[in-house]
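Dear V.,

Thank you for sending over the compound details. I've combined the ligand you provided, pyridoxal-5'-phosphate, with the protein sequence from our construct and run the structure prediction for the complex. I'm sharing the raw inputs here so there's no ambiguity about protonation or stereochemistry in the SMILES, which I know was a concern on your side last time.
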Amino acid sequence: MRDHNGIQRILEAPFVPLGKWPTPISAISRSNGVDVLVKRDDLSGHGRGGVKTRKIEHLVGHMLEKGYGSLVTPVGNVTNLVHDILPVLRRFDIAWDIVVADVPPLPLGERRRMFGGLGSNVRLIGPGHIEAAGALAGAYHRSRRAGRRPFFAPPSLAHPAAVIAAARGFLEMVGQVEAMGVPPLQTVFITAASGTAFAGFVLAENLLRQQGHRPIHVVGVQVYPGPARRWIHGLVRWTEHYLSVSDRVPSGRIDLRTTRIYREFGRYPTDLVELCTSVKDETGLKLDPVFGGKTWSIMESCLAQGRSNGSVLYWHCGYTPDWEVVPAAR
Ligand SMILES: Cc1ncc(COP(=O)(O)O)c(C=O)c1O
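Below is the predicted structure of the protein with pyridoxal-5'-phosphate bound, written out as structure tokens.
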């Protein structure tokens, strides 16, 4: 059965308005011949900026609609999420208990400098999964005892509400590109940390195809090792179920790239710093080597392998300033 309501359901999902939409699209040219469109979610206009604004809008909208009174979630040491979401939770009277795992590992003094001012409900723990699970379970029960209905969000808000937020962003972008009068959009490159934004893109792209739109190749770039492919697959299926969408994204279409530059979370090789500096000097775009620089690098390698017939778009997910406190991997 063809499902034409999926897009409608995405557009009707609850959210709290925080960002300035639509974010602009810039045409960027480099001296090495790279010519791409850039979706400027770094200019989302909330907090530190980034695709995260979309996710926060929809996740908080979902929590308010369902009557949740507190957020329990883990983050790593290199994060914009915790800084950007706390003012929103405060504004909507939602409590929080956020657990900061020591990944990538940093000296305690540095971590205190980064997170110390955020209050006692942002807790610093060690790097282990077992300690994180224990801390999160403790936070969940504390919240229940305090009479607040807790909502557990996986890392990077990897929940259907956030996938839907990204899907909505993808629909916004497709409309903008069509209005620009450039060659039809052929490929979109997106950073995949948890893969939440990427999952939203493949979902929206599939729904557009069902409505007769020409295919758009969505490439996700994995920025640290781990079972991302299986996780993203699950996230897509979970969101399809959540939206009651009957036309599922074929598994083979989930194109996630991995190369030698992916090390543990938050790490990066030094040549990526040089690439980010060169992109900044030539185009004014600020990329960090922990997330977006890796995606840019993969995009340039793909473009070097062959000419593209249509437009190529790099999705600027945001800039994470804390990357500078993490030493480069050798
Ligand atoms: C800088 C940056 N890059 C990429 C992403 C995409 O992350 P994810 O794959 O977890 O959706 C985010 C977070 O939303 C981000 O802040």
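A first observation: The chain has a mean pLDDT of 94.

Warm regards,
I. M.
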